[in-house]
Amino acid sequence: MAGCGRSNALSDAMSSFHLSLLLSGPYQAMLFAGLRLSLTLLTVAFVVALPLGVLIALARLSPFVFVRGIAIVFIESQRNVPLLAHLLFWYFGAPELLPDAAKQWLYAHDVETIAAVVAITLYYAAFMSEDVRSGVRAVPSVQFEAARALGLPWFSAMRRVVLPQALRVTVPPLLSQTLNLWKDTSIATVIGTAELMYQAAKVESATFRSIEAFTFATVSYLTVSLLITALASGYSHRYPARAL
User: Fold this and answer.
1) CATH 1.10.340.30 is right for the domain spanning 25-236
2) pTM for the whole thing?
3) Which range in 10-24, 90-104, 226-240 is most confidently predicted, on average pLDDT?
C-alpha cells in the first residue's frame, strides 16, 4: 500500500509543471544555494588550477630530470584515474592521514566542499598543464634560445619571452577545460557536497517534483556552459590562431 501511495503521489506530481516551486519558497532557496556553490567550485578550482597548471608545465619542461620526473608522475596519476576516484580519496582517505587536530578542524569546516575543491583543482591542473606545455612547444625554439643568449636565466626566459606567446594559443583549449570543469562539479554530489545536483536531488526527494528540480539544474548547467562556449568563440574570433 505504501508503494502504491508513493506511485500515485509521483503520478500526480508529474501531471503539471509547477513554476512556483522555482520562483519562491524554501525549495527555490535550496536550488539557488546549490547553484552558488557549484559556481564557487568552478571559480575557486579554475583560479587555483590555472597557475598551478602553468607551474607544472614548466616543471615538465625543466632541464632537471628529477623535477621533470615529479611533474610526470603527478600528471599521469591525475589524468589516468577517474575524477570520482580522486573525490573519494580526498573525502574518505586523505583526512585519515592527518593529525587529529587537523582532522577535527577539517570535519568542522565543511570537509565535503574542501575535498571537492582539492580533487577537482588537482585533476584539472594536470590537464591544463598539458595544454600549457603544448602552447610552449608551439613557440619557435629560437625565441627561447635568443632569450638565453641575451643572458636570461631559464625560468626568466620562459616567463618573460615564451609563456606570454604560449598562453595566447593556449586560451581556447583552456576554456574547453573550463567547460569540462564546470560540468564535472556535478560529480561532487557523490561525497555529499551541497552543490546543484545534490540540492536538486534533495528537492525532488522532498516534493516528488523531479521535473522542476532537474529542469532547474539542467537549465543552469546549460546556461553557464553556453556562456563559457560563447567566451571561447568570442576569443577565437577576436584573436584568431596564427603561426608563431
Assistant:
1) no
2) 0.85
3) 90-104
